[in-house]
Amino acid sequence: MRYVSTRGEAAPRGFDDVLLAGLAEDGGLFLPESWPVLTVAEWRALRGLPYAELAARLLHRFAGEAMTLDEMRALTTDAYAGFRHPAVTPLVQIAPNQFVLELFHGPTLAFKDVALQLLGRLFDHVLTKRGERITIVGATSGDTGSAAIEACRDREAVDIVILHPENRTSEVQRRQMTTVLSPNVANIALKGSFDDCQDLVKTMFLDAPFRKEMRLAAVNSINWARIAAQIVYYAYAALNLGAPEREVAVAVPTGNFGNVLAAWAARQMGLPIAHFIIGSNRNDILARFLAANDMTARDVEPSLSPSMDIQVSSNFERLLFELMGRDGAATAGLMRDFRAEGRMPVPDAAWKKARELFTGFTLDDAGTLAEIQRLHRDAGYLADPHTAVGTAAAHALWSDRKMPLIIAATAHPAKFPDAVQRATGIRPALPPALADLYERPERFTVLPNDLGEVEAMVRAHARRNAVPA
Ligand SMILES: *Cc1c(COP(=O)(O)O)cnc(C)c1O
Q: What is the pTM of this model?
């Protein structure tokens, strides 16, 4: 299995190179050179398998020669053993033909754990084989940082440094990061904003000698292995609901477009996902694109679903590349226009193709609170504000359909207790494994907004010179 870049200039690479590189050298995103398509009989043979086994069989197709099925199985078994539900990603029915796919049973209560728990182990496996180490550096406003830290803690070949803005994350978010006391984890509380954290990280990555010496790497949402790992839960849900004999649809609350892209990738593999609903909050660039071919970035506005407060959905580039008939030069041109003008002139033919499969749905904060209340009243189900965007889309667009709709539940309600309490009067409790979070000791270093001091801390923490045994 080889991977090509959406901008058509980078040489094709294997799975482990794509895993470690993240972004292609031409600035594009990696996609399989051709999609591994399973026959109906092959899909049927996967029905009923435990989650980790299904993950191993599907992901092995993407790894190609880079890993054996047994190696992949060892990693998926280990990655998903720590989830709090035996089904890993269980389905809960909330209405006729509407099923919530709960993706939040991992260590940090958000769907990013499903991919990142595996990604950390994939990094370790590939790096150990190569006798290499990396240092992961990232900035977080709260959620991504904790999922990345949980994924990388205690990994042999990986060190991780996460910057968060001091006193600007919630206490739960900070403690989920700072109470991980593993020696390979470092937290920096920066005297500055989230944007300052991000600027420092960007500058470190642009500092080529420093990047090389520290072997800096990122775990951002454009990494192909993250998307691949997310394909598994759509397959798991669809098979449980009657695929491949029965068509299903999905509704996904979206920010960077990664989660919905994974569902679309499952379709590319032959799974009968007939339709895709993309949920947005007031930051609705994707909904505007689908409604009127208006892909214009506006200022990001804060909402009750902060992980969807995004105006540039980076993974959209992968869909765009396919819509443009896999023309890398044309895709690169559109991305350049978007960067320069804040507006992307998508050709009408490509836009029409997108509309055949995707429908946009937008919900503001008032609508989100109303939906959390409605769903609790109608179905006794507590949804977090991100998930509520998806269930509201289902309620509005899918109430009379016979085809099952899978709604991605991206966060545990206890991760956003204030909104849930405002809507329902109920304050959702943290699961038992996190109940003592407020008593656990914390470790972090407060640093000024200064590149020199932050780089010195990364240098002191990175074990890049030692080769793992
Ligand atoms: C990251 C995140 C999203 C958005 O996912 P994308 O893959 O960026 O579309 C939605 N909800 C929650 C809770 C998240 O953490």
A: 0.95
